[in-house]
Amino acid sequence: MTFTEIELYDALKRVLTTMTFALVVEPRPKDAPSGELLCAAISFGGLQNGKMYLRIPLEIMPELAGNYLATDDTHSPNTQEQLDVLGELINVVGGAVLDRPVGSNRAYELGIPVIGEAYAPGPVYGSRTVAKLWLERGWAELTVDILPGENS
Amino acid sequence: MNYNVLVVDDSSAVCRVIKRCLEILEFPLEDYFTANDGEKGLARLQKTPIHILFLDLHMPHMDGYEMIEKIEKLPSWSNLTVVIISSEPNKHRLRALMKPNVLFVPKPFTLEDIGDVVDKITKDMLA
Q: Which residues does chain A have within 8 Å of residue B14's beta carbon, measured at their own beta carbons?
């Protein structure tokens, strides 16, 4: 796997800023976010295969989803809407990370997002970035990991 | 002129956001339809005259690539503008879809992106 932390961070920052208007600041040391987390995953294949995970604190999902869906202050997105937004986030982050110039006709293919998939690995053995988001309710950290597939 | 818009995307969040964008832009909507895969989108196209189709590429059952292959054969193809909205990382595959009435908006998109594309479509249709 050749995804650098900077590449992951830049893609994550671009997606979060555009989709959810969150203020994203420099990555912190490679610690994972704490508290109750939601996890989304998306597989990819092509030039290399693997799986990307996005872990995000449960408590910030209503605000992120509300920002993306442009709901007014009187409507808080329900659980299904929050999960839909999380699925869209991992999909777009995946596309942004894998959208790199390639020298051949081969490129990456993205799978379908899976929400709530258990995140298995503890120590980092793929690529990881952590972004810190400033939201109205305070700040939160979220993590993107890319883990290599068997044939990579 | 008011427009019939169809959004085909397996993400209901995207279907909602595009509608919200069109509302904010005060786009003249006649009707707004959604479908969560290509099969349902194709069924809608076959029974309702659609002016603008916002289409995702990665979906279960029938994806956007297969849907475009099928709708190219429909009589309504010449009256339709397709806006592909996707995070597709495979630019070679994407380029093969580009035709005069097929436009592309990359994800993540902004309100301005949607505004630009519907402006272009309405100007072309009225020209």
A: 88
A41-66 confidence digits (pLDDT tens): 998 888 778 888 888 888 888 988 99
- Report ipTM (2 d.p.): 0.75
- The CB density around residue B31, as the number of other CB atoms within 10 Å, is 13
Mean pLDDT across chain A: 78
Where do we find the tokens 């899976």? Answer: A114
**pTM for this structure?**
0.82
B107 vs A138: which has the higher pLDDT: B107
Chain B: give the shortest CA distance to residue A14, in Å. Answer: 8
Could you tell me which residues of chain B have a Cβ less than 8 Å from any Cβ in chain A?
A: 10-14, 16-17, 20, 24, 58-60, 86-93, 106-110
User: In this structure, are residues A91 and B58 in contact, taking their beta carbons and an 8 Å threshold?
Assistant: yes
Cβ distance B33 to B82 under 8 Å?
no
Distances (CA, A) of A54 to A46, A85, B28: 21, 12, 37
**Least CB–CB distance from A94: residue in B13, B20, B87:** B87
Does the bond joining B108 to the residue before it have cis omega, within 30 degrees of 0?
Answer: yes
Suggest the residue from A20, A21, A78, A110 to mutate for an interface test with chain B (most B CBs closer than 10 A).
A110
- Residue holding tokens 């597989």? A43
Closest CB from B12, B13, B89 relative to A99: B89
A43: Cβ contacts below 8 Å, ≥ 6 apart: A49, A50, A51, A52, A110, A111, A149
What is the dihedral angle through the alpha carbons of B96, B100, B101, B106, rounded to the nearest 10 degrees? 50
A91 touches chain B (CB under 8 A): yes
Task: Give the amino acid at B31.
Answer: D
Closest to A98 (Cβ–Cβ): which among B59, B89, B109? Answer: B89
